Amino acid sequence: MDLHRRDFLDELLETPSPSGFETEGQRVWLDYVEEFADETRTDAYGNAVATYEGGAGPHIVFSGHADEIGYTVSSITDDGFVRIIPIGGSDPLVSRGTQIQILADDGPVNGVIGQTAIHLRDKDDDQSVPEIRAQHVDIGAEDDEQARDLIEVGDPATAATGVHDLAGSRLSARGLDNRVGVWVAAEALRLAKEREVDARICAVSTVQEELGLKGAEMVGFSLEPDAVIAVDVTHAADNPGYPDDWANDLELGNGPVVSRGTANHPELVTAVREAAEAEGLDVQLQATGQQTGTDADAFYTQRGGIPTLNLGIPNRYMHTPAEVVDTADLETAARVLAAMADREDEREYFGVTL
Known about the structure:
six-stranded antiparallel barrel, 2 domains
């Protein structure tokens, strides 16, 4: 990954963007896509759209979601500690002992989600994990007056972890779910323009996916696309902690993942696989028996049915403060999508033929 593209990814990852509070992250994304998009726009809730007006071909959307899981302040105790509730699917098993930043109006406030020292815990009860709403945050305040000078109820928070390079082209960070998706959407748009694709291509960065696909429901209706590719993380099985009863074949570094079944339209499945093969790019396959759990589930039921595909990026340790991906999979995903748009720019209809 060249330095400019990696700087963009790092800035996305370093900018907190919890669900419902995505504004700063969306600004980072817009600043990048404005370098090459013909037009950008946002809606009332902050969904961001960048458009390449390539020609008379189909209207194809590449989408990722901007938001991440986190916490929000629910109350402040008399002695200055903070109670929180989860934003999205935050995991109580990994939250205790985590450093966080509370995103207050006057700037971030550092805190720690308290964990009783191992020396003091009753080992008979050591397997019990309190729900997040029963955990507490220590911001160092002496009392509630000092705490309320710094934060207020409703302030969001995220884990205070950085971006760390691992071996090869792998990296670890919080919020890879789904900064990688919005990175791919932006890069696919740039590459489609570079290829002079004869079609209208939109890159979309949606909000509030972690709260129930809300942003995709908004823009799926307003954009009126002919086809949507929703890029999101998916579980990589290539690590010792992956459960056998969730078996799949997915590995980091073996390419993006084409999902098959349910929301995933067979014409788009074929189009993406054929584009990858023509370009000599590797993709992996994943079965979807009920739902994808991504924005694809919202897009495909809009406007009487929009042909949609979920393209996955293999991810280890999802919804923890230390997710892991291989950046080679991101680059391959963007190239595959641009190639698919190029090959399909004369298609008039993505629907099935009966």
